[in-house]
Design goal:
- With about 60 residues, the chain is an all-alpha fold.
- The protein contains two helices and no strands.
- α1 runs antiparallel to α2.
- The chain is elongated, with a radius of gyration of 15 Å.
Length: about 60
């Protein structure tokens, strides 16, 4: 399976980075607005990013020795 999913894994890694940036942006916006609680959508975005990370690990497992 090595390399079979490289293109998909690469796109998923990009999506993961975009989601992380979006979550950070939501947190900054909340802080700038004087918020004292985490924005609800930031939690949803973070959960989505974790799911994407899980997919990356499933499609690109570490090399077996």
């Amino acid at each position: 399976m090595s390399g079979e999913f490289d293109d998909i894994v690469g796109r998923l890694e990009g999506i993961s980075e975009e989601l992380a940036d979006l979550a950070i942006s939501r947190l900054r916006d909340s802080i700038d607005a004087g918020g004292h609680e985490l924005p609800v959508d930031e939690k949803i975005i973070t959960r989505a990013r974790r799911a994407v990370e899980k997919a990356i690990h499933l499609l690109d497992p570490p090399e077996q020795f």
